[in-house]
């Protein structure tokens, strides 16, 4: 029926809610502040209307997507998210396998619960590594080097988190993360104790020179995640960013920011085609992705739906949810008259 992929996601979300401890569910769902940004993300994609083409040959729709030399069969990318082991015992190893089997790229979080080496070995598709700049900069540099050695093909530097957003739903709630799953990738570089905890915090003094520095240290392209303005995106590109991710961090950082869907056109203008632009926040269907791609995004990241699928179905669940989204996109692209992502352009969307 019409709501196919949406009702599948709603079912998967309910299965995850039933399967997960309450505090983990709340941690996954939570937004910062009054959760205004969290609440607006999905609806913002529905503020656009499509202007389809007709009489195109859409008998074969090819979703192949090239990003910085990484080729994926689908423009859906798994967003970096912390602690997948809270959803499933195999954690990120299951996620990369399921995503790879669906032809999707995965971005692995600094706060992953499996080692980069295990994740690299489990991967059946391409993956990138998401970095935070830590107060101990040597720690970040060690991580990006290890990620490159383990097979990551790009670094995604998250820049919207000088301090972690305050999430009312989970304030004061302690989640029991097993020691062998808690910040495992940082642990081996730190001596235990209070000083180590401080070293593993984000460095609020980060400036654009970090982009070039991490590229040099890792030998990988550096994509900057968490940009909502064209002028800021331009500043990142001028500092050497190989790509930009338009993101509100799933509504978990600054509340009441402009929704990603509305920030995207401004960022695209600032970037001016110099580097790829990705976007995330509330992408829940092929039509949401179609709007993003037609506005000019090169790919879309999906966050929470991947955690729901992982919690309820492990690697196979992740494969299924990403496959379902790709099939939905394939269908709506055909009906909109676009046989390939590069057949989509800005003229195909208008504001509602
Ligand atoms: C995140 N996100 C995130 N981003 C990042 O750069 N590093 C991280 O470690 C995390 N961790 C994280 C944990 C959880 C539980 C969530 C829900 C999100 C943000 C994530 O990459 C992405 O920007 C949003 O989740 C996308 O929005 P949707 O698809 O969840 O609406």
UniProtKB/TrEMBL annotation:
GO MF, one example: oxidoreductase activity, acting on CH-OH group of donors
Residues binding glyoxylate, per UniProt: 27, 132, 249, 252
Alphabetically ordered keywords of this record: Flavoprotein, FMN, Oxidoreductase
Residue numbers binding FMN: 80-82, 109, 130, 158, 225, 247, 280-284, 303-304
Cofactor(s) for this UniProt protein: FMN
PROSITE patterns per record: FMN_HYDROXY_ACID_DH_2
Active site: 249
InterPro entries in UniProt: Aldolase_TIM, Alpha-hydoxy_acid_DH_FMN, FMN-dep_DH, FMN_HAD
Record domain FMN hydroxy acid dehydrogenase: where: 1-352
Family: Belongs to the FMN-dependent alpha-hydroxy acid dehydrogenase family.
PANTHER family in the cross-refs: 2-HYDROXYACID OXIDASE 1, S -2-HYDROXY-ACID OXIDASE-RELATED
Protein name as it appears in the record: 4-hydroxymandelate oxidase
Source species: Geodermatophilus aquaeductus
């Amino acid at each position: 029926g019409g709501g196919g992929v949406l009702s599948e996601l709603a079912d998967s979300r309910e299965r995850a809610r039933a399967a997960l401890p309450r505090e983990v569910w709340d941690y996954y769902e939570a937004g910062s502040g009054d959760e205004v940004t969290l609440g607006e993300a999905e609806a913002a994609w529905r503020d656009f209307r499509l202007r389809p083409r007709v009489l195109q040959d859409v008998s074969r729709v090819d979703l192949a997507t090239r990003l910085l030399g990484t080729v994926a069969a689908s423009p859906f990318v798994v967003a970096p998210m912390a602690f997948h082991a809270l959803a499933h015992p195999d954690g990120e190893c299951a996620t990369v396998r399921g995503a790879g089997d669906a032809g999707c790229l995965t971005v692995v979080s600094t706060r992953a619960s499996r080692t980069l080496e295990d994740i690299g070995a489990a991967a059946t598709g391409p993956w990138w590594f998401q970095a935070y700049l830590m107060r101990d900069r040597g720690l970040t540099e060690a991580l990006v080097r290890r990620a490159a050695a383990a097979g990551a093909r790009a670094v995604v530097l998250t820049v919207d988190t000088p301090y972690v957003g305050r999430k009312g739903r989970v304030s004061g709630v302690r989640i029991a993360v097993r020691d062998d799953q808690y910040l495992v990738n940082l642990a081996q570089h730190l001596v235990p104790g209070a000083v180590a905890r401080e070293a593993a915090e984000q460095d609020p003094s980060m400036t654009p020179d970090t982009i070039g520095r991490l590229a040099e240290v890792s030998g990988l392209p550096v994509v900057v995640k968490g940009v909502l303005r064209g002028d800021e995106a331009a500043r990142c590109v001028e500092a050497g960013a190989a790509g930009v991710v338009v993101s509100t961090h799933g509504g978990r950082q600054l509340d009441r920011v402009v929704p990603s869907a509305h920030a995207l056109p401004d960022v695209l203008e600032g970037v001016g085609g110099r580097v790829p632009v990705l976007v995330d926040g509330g992408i829940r269907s092929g039509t949401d992705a179609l709007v993003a791609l037609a506005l000019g995004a090169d790919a879309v990241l999906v966050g929470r739906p991947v955690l729901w699928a992982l919690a309820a179905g492990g690697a196979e669940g992740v494969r299924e949810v990403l496959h379902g989204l790709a099939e939905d996109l394939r269908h709506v692209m055909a009906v909109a008259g676009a046989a390939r992502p590069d057949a989509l352009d800005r003229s195909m969307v208008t504001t509602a």
